[in-house]
Amino acid sequence: MQSPDGAAAAAQREAEEGVLLYEAVQLLEQGATLNEKNKQIQERPEEKGTLNREIQDLKDMLEVKERKADTSNTDTALPTLVESLAEMEHIIQRLKEQRFQDEHEKGEELVATKTTLERMKVEHKMALEETAA
Q1: Is residue 4 within 8 Å of 76, Cβ to Cβ?
Q2: Where are the domains of the chain?
Q3: Whole-prediction pTM value?
Q4: What's CA 23's distance to the chain center, in Å?
Q5: Which of 34, 41, 42, 39 has the alpha carbon at shortest distance from 113?
Q6: DSSP state of 70
Q7: How far apart are CA 33 and CA 35, in angstroms?
Q8: Among the ranges given (48-52, 66-70, 125-129), the one the predictor scored with the smallest mean pLDDT
Q9: Structure confidence by residue, pLDDT tens digits, 5-21
């Protein structure tokens, strides 16, 4: 039969092990999140390339339309084409700004996740050392 002090120590160890297990699960979840963020960041250049190709396709289409406009329609077609070009440039600028903002937010999220993960690793290590002592 265990003495009351022995039972209390066993209960304390069990509680500490539960905390360590919870922290280990959190570390695993943080690691999975970090891996997902890294994957998203690696996919950014692919998305950027796709957007740049789409932009180039739109510019090419506009250029073809400009070439097709004959001189009889120049007076009406030219302002329409200029307006379309201005609108496309506005869309391009908005897409670039959105891409920059998204990359910035992902970078901040990644830094915050890494910081949290490192802090949790240190806390976990300290808890293990306290349990071992």
Answers
A1: no
A2: 4-132
A3: 0.41
A4: 24
A5: 34
A6: -
A7: 5
A8: 66-70
A9: 778 888 888 888 888 88
